[in-house]
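Last lecture ended with a question: if I hand you only a sequence, what can you say about the shape of the protein? Today we answer it with a concrete record. The protein is Glyoxalase. Below, first the input exactly as provided, then the predicted structure, then a couple of comments.
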Amino acid sequence: MPLTPFHLAIQVRDIDEAREFYGRKLGFPEGRSSDHWIDFNVFGHQVVTHLNPALGKDGSVQAIANPVDGHGVPVPHFGVVLTFEDWERFAEQTRQVIDRFIIEPYVRFQGQPGEQGTLFFSDPSGNALEFKGFRDIDSELFAR
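The predicted structure:
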């Protein structure tokens, strides 16, 4: 079955802050929008930021962390699987604009099935994002 784009709706504390972060800082093209939500094209996938006034200007989405390869991986999180070359370019781009990584870009599970480049950071509302890169997505994405 061919892969198709996913749609993900997340809550944010401030629409203008989301526009600045996803659109201007990360460079994801903006699609449709209103005063309460914005569509972003995240590597061909539709991520929609929805205003949640209950978070307040200083609030953030709650998360926990689970251990993976010696790091605390935030849950929930979302992200995109990329080719390794695209991941390397994105990792370099994010190093220029992200002040604090949850997990700095590195290669996880080196020399094992499923070896992958990974990085984690949060948006201003506390939504954790992961971007992964595989040298051969078809054989490594679900490798055991």
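Comments.
1. Residues 107 and 117 are 4 Å apart (CA to CA).
2. The chain is about 20% helix and 40% strand.
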